Amino acid sequence: MTRAVVFAYSEVGVRCVRELLSQGVEIAILFTHADDPGESQWFGSVAELGREQGLRVETPQDPNRPEWVAEGRRADPDFLFSFYYRYLLKAPWLDVPRRGALNMHGSLLPKYRGRAPVHWAIIHGEPCTGASLHYMLEKPDAGALVDQQAVPILENDTALTVSLKVADAAQQVLHRSLPKLIAGTAEARPLDLAHGSYFGRRRPEDGRIDWRQGARAVHDLVRAVAPPFPGAFTDVNGCRLAILETRVDGEPARHAAAAPCLYAMDGAWYADCVDGRRLKILQLAMDDRPVAPNSAPASLSKQPLALI
What we know:
The chain is α/β, with parallel strands linked by helices. It has two domains: about 5-200, Formyl transferase, N-terminal domain (Rossmann fold), CATH 3.40.50.170; about 205-305, Methionyl-tRNA Fmet Formyltransferase, Chain A, domain 2, CATH 3.10.25.10. The protein is about 25% helix and about 30% strand. It has seven helices and 16 strands. The protein has helices at about 10-20, 45-50, 65-75, 90-95, 115-125, 160-185, 215-225, and strands spanning about 5-10, 25-30, 55-60, 80-85, 100-105, 115, 130-135, 145-150, 200, 230-235, 240-250, 260-265, 270, 275-285, 290, 305. A seven-stranded mixed beta sheet has the order 3-2-1-4-5-7-8. Strands 10, 11, 12, 13, 14, 15 and 16 form a seven-stranded antiparallel beta sheet that branches. Strands 6-9 form a two-stranded parallel sheet. The longest helix is centred in the middle third of the chain and has 25 residues, at about 160-185.
């Protein structure tokens, strides 16, 4: 029987752990993260899945400590798999498995290496992204590619909808690649990193809207960080407004000379942007409460409101 040490988290982790089990892989140790109560849990729990399956589940703060690597060696795995695990595994771990260490990454490598690949792809207006299974090196997301599968990013897709598409793609990639890995027939091609890109992690503050950008760029940011992620925001008249859902409107800016600006019209919120286009704001909130145009507080009553 093929044995593996697995590091996994989030929905990709759940789907891929299930796939390993369905193909008869013995998971000697399942490393995951303790869920953060302050984080929206839109995804399944790897820890719960592991315990339901009777697996050894570990949640170390630092998996690279020598004692954990020693545990991995004692497990004597054929493979090491990392499925959306949030810590970088260092060189000693990569030497543990006899037949290789592989990672599932949420982009079409070599594009969008690094952290938050789905969010970055949406922010940059990409028409597609995907899931890539590749061998691990010390350098993140840089090892030879075994397989990948693309998924479309539609105009109004959010990070949640795309993340679920990527999770589906990840499971499909593993489903067709795992038998070849076990049989020793899987091919891999080096990644040309010169034709790729690398991005770092994102923080809630990165959701601040830059109104110097055009309507489509603002819309892409809004959908890239929309709930259950922290959300996009802007400050108007001393008020912090959360802009949680938008559409690029077919009508041109109504107050082009005042753009960028916020205003209500016909029972809806709009933002005119510097490129002469406007956004219809489907969800606008203040202090975690929706703000309807007909019940806006006095601080938002004067319109149009400057956004810079």
